[in-house]
Design goal:
The complex is a heterodimer of chains A (about 425) and B (about 290).
Chain A: H1 2-21, E1 35-41, H2 46-62, E2 66-72, H3 78-87, E3 94-98, H4 103-107, H5 120-125, H6 128-131, E4 135-136, E5 139-140, E6 143-147, E7 150-155, H7 156-162, H8 175-185, H9 200-208, E8 216-218, E9 224-226, H10 232-244, H11 258-266, E10 272-276, H12 279-286, E11 293-297, E12 307-309, E13 312-316, H13 323-333, H14 336-346, E14 349-350, H15 353-356, H16 368-374, E15 378-380, H17 389-405, H18 411-429
Parallel strand pairs in A: 1-2, 1-3, 12-15
Antiparallel strand pairs in A: 3-13, 4-5, 6-13, 6-14, 7-10, 7-11, 8-9
Helix pairs in contact in A: 2-14, 8-10, 9-10, 17-18
Chain B: H1 2-50, H2 54-57, H3 72-80, H4 83-114, H5 118-130, H6 135-148, H7 155-180, H8 183-191, H9 196-225, H10 228-233, H11 242-246, H12 258-293
Helix pairs in contact in B: 1-12, 3-12, 4-7, 4-9, 5-7, 7-9, 8-9, 9-12
The chains are: A alpha+beta (about 425), B mainly alpha (about 290).
């Protein structure tokens, strides 16, 4: 019996070793020298998937010696999937992700520093503030290419009937004016606004920039530190007061995601919704016949008409044996005309200045012109490169903001928890 | 007098007892109904959503029955994602995993149930401990092992993982079924001259059939629904399984292409439902038959 077990174990071991020994020097080339790149895309809407696949097809037709394979990824699970692929040495060559997901991978050495590889055209085409979203330490670890501001989607008829001034990108509402307008729009079973704050942290931080808030600061030795200053309370205070004092914002919407709030908007229960720019596609699909809606800029405060964003990015795996070719492919994907196709497919804004100037993105229809005009006020999301941010967000900030907006705690308690508990979390990551 | 009181009192107590019994029974049925509604609600809603046009999905007053039922969501789902190919991959992975798990688990379970000793205790301990490991803890070592064996991006690699993952619970489950088979039956067979192998094949195996089917069903459904291993281990789109392909209907920040997602998810639940519908009666029938004989 023992001898049988021993023989079986030996056979399994030998088989494993044989299989292991079969691994050759796979450098992503075919026998005929053709380079094979894997491009993992997170495009998910039909128009966007079609645009990406079409561009890959065009590249492959023009570059027989460098062939790209399109691999479909998913936003829902990209972080875990990439982490495992990096650890296992099986990562795609070209990686589609978002800048707020890159910090761990960039600092972990999994993503190539693109500075020596990027062509001048691409460097010059994308503004400095966008490049900052993918700069971690000294390196640039991704090319930011699509971004979306948060905008107010308003029920046109209700807004007109209220007599409120219609804000424009040049003359947005102030936060006080916005609060007043939502009060006027409230009544007869209707709320002036609904804040779908299922993810309250990114909304609070990104919009907080317009009130002059930053929350995350760098001290003398470059370490990130949290400070709650008066500017940090402008946006959060407005939302809190709309929900709890004015009753002009629907309390029940606080736990919703953007899509969840759309039926209430279409049904006239909410006059306005603050949503990402790409939600316009869903609105077009789902809005009842004859429903009129308009895209407005978010209010501006002491910080100006600015807000934080985490653009979608294209990165190259550090372990890829063909980084130069991978960057050449990225450069092709992000040529101005192609960037426009990708932007339109995803209903977002391109980061490239030339693409952004494209006439098709400057039309009034579906609010494209309003969005394009907001692009210059888009800044890197305040905390995305801070190590320890994900833990602070999940354990400290999310419950604190949720309790504050629902009226369970006051501004002092919010500030204490965000800063004191938060700095303890950050300190652990910055020893 | 006393007798009269007693005779008058008895029907009262009886009727009170009956009333209490009836009330308790009604309460039980109500609780059962509430539980059924709780279980069925998501599925009914899924079906309803799958047949609704986009405009109805955005309605403030949603209806259970679509006002303008449509097959557009199904068309779009098939149009946008390779659902049939993914379903084929899922089927191969789930059926293979279920068969292999059962073939391995059945003799092991017999040994565990019939031969008490250190090995059986250790095996039981292993089964319990193995259930405590979360996916994320094992995925990277597992990935590296499979990579060395050249099993990354192959359905065989995935099947191997599914077998290993479902084996402990399958073993546990089958061992319970084996224990329920009276040893006297095996002894009687031995007295009649049947050898060990004959006893196992002709006496034990038929009685274990419902247990084997239930275990296979468990392994099948575990593999059919599994997402994370398939996501990580399969790279090329042609090899992806249904749960992975379903996530392609999801965008960033939880935005979803709801109609096609519901349509595809509805189709993905059908095989499990059909299997249950066919096999459930046999499992119950088999068990009941055993109980009556016993």
């Amino acid at each position: 019996m023992r001898a049988t077990v021993r023989r079986a174990a030996t056979a399994v071991t030998v088989l494993a070793l044989l299989l292991t020994g079969c691994s050759g020097g796979d450098d992503g080339r075919d026998a005929d020298g053709t380079i094979r790149l894997r491009f993992q895309s997170l495009a998910w809407q039909k128009e966007s998937v079609d645009a990406n696949k079409q561009l890959v097809k065009e590249w492959n037709a023009a570059h027989p010696d460098v062939q790209v394979e399109y691999v479909q990824g998913s936003w829902d699970s990209v972080h875990d999937q990439l982490l495992t692929s990096f650890e296992g040495g099986e990562a795609p060559d070209v990686i589609h992700d978002a800048s707020d997901d890159l910090a761990d991978f960039a600092y972990g050495g999994y993503l190539a520093d693109l500075r020596p590889l990027l062509p001048e055209r691409l460097k010059a085409d994308i503004p400095e503030q966008s490049w900052r979203t993918t700069t971690f330490g000294e390196g640039v670890h991704g090319v930011p290419f699509l971004q979306e501001p948060r905008v107010l989607i308003a029920n046109t008829k209700l807004l007109k009937a209220s007599g409120a001034r219609t804000p424009t990108p040049e003359r947005p509402w102030s936060w006080e004016e916005f609060r007043q307008v939502t009060k006027e729009l409230t009544g007869q079973g209707r709320y002036g606004i609904a804040w779908p704050l299922k993810e309250p942290v990114s909304v609070s931080l990104n919009l907080g920039l317009s009130g002059g808030g930053r929350l995350f600061h760098r001290d003398g030795d470059g370490k990130a530190v949290l400070r709650f200053e008066p500017g940090d309370g402008v946006v959060t205070g407005t939302i809190h007061d709309q929900v709890n004092t004015d009753r002009s914002a629907a309390r029940s919407a606080l736990g919703m995601g953007g899509s969840d709030a759309l039926p209430g908007f279409f049904g006239g229960r909410y006059a306005m919704l603050p949503l990402g720019f790409s939600y316009r596609q869903q609105i077009i699909q789902q809005a009842p016949e004859g429903f009129e809606w308009t895209v407005l800029p978010m209010p501006a405060g002491a910080g100006g008409a600015v807000q934080g964003v985490s653009p979608q990015t294209l990165s190259v795996a550090e372990e890829s044996p063909h980084q130069k070719e991978a960057v050449a492919f990225i450069d092709f994907l992000l040529r101005p005309a192609n960037m426009v196709r990708l932007a339109r497919g995803d209903w977002m804004l391109p980061t490239g200045t030339e693409a952004l100037a494209d006439p098709s993105l400057r039309v009034a229809e579906h609010g494209w012109a309003v969005g394009a005009a907001l692009a210059e006020g888009l800044r890197p999301a305040p905390a995305q490169s801070v190590r320890g941010y994900p833990e602070w967000k999940d354990k400290v900030a999310t419950p604190a903001y949720q309790e504050f907006y629902s009226g369970a705690i006051g501004a002092d308690e919010l500030s204490n928890r965000l800063v004191e508990d938060g700095n303890r979390v950050l300190a652990r990551y910055q020893r | 007098m006393r007798r009269g009181l007693l005779t008058r009192g008895a029907p009262d107590r009886e009727s009170t007892g009956l009333r209490t019994g009836r009330a308790a029974r009604t309460g039980q049925y109500l609780a059962l109904l509430a539980y059924l509604v709780f279980l069925a609600f998501p599925f009914v809603w899924l079906i309803s959503t799958a047949f609704k046009p986009a405009r109805e999905l955005g309605s403030l007053h949603p209806t259970w029955i679509p006002e303008n039922p449509t097959l557009d969501n199904f068309r779009q789902a098939f149009d946008e994602q390779p659902l049939l190919q993914a379903a084929g991959n899922s089927l191969v992975a789930a059926v293979s995993a279920a068969l292999i798990a059962v073939v391995i688990a059945t003799p092991m379970a017999y040994v565990m149930a019939r031969h008490r000793g250190r090995l059986a205790t250790a095996a039981t301990g292993w089964v319990v401990v193995s259930q405590a490991f979360p996916f994320v803890l094992v995925i990277i070592p597992l990935f590296l092992i499979l990579k060395n064996l050249h099993l990354i991006n192959t359905l065989w690699g995935l099947i191997l993982v599914y077998v290993v993952w479902s084996l402990p619970f399958a073993l546990w489950m089958l061992a319970g079924y084996v224990r329920a088979v009276p040893t006297e039956l095996e002894e009687a067979a031995a007295v009649d001259g049947a050898g060990r192998f004959r006893t196992l094949v002709s006496v034990v195996a038929p009685l274990l059939a419902p247990g084997i089917v239930a275990t296979a069903l468990f392994a099948f459904i575990t593999a059919w629904n599994e997402f994370f291993f398939a996501l990580v281990l399969l790279k090329t789109p042609e090899k992806q399984t249904l749960p992975v392909v379903l996530t392609h209907f999801l965008g960033a920040e939880g935005v979803a292409d709801l109609g096609p997602l519901a349509a595809a998810a509805f189709l993905a639940t059908l095989p499990s439902l059909v299997l249950f519908a066919f096999i459930q009666r046999r499992i119950t029938g088999g068990m009941t038959a055993g109980a009556v004989k016993h």
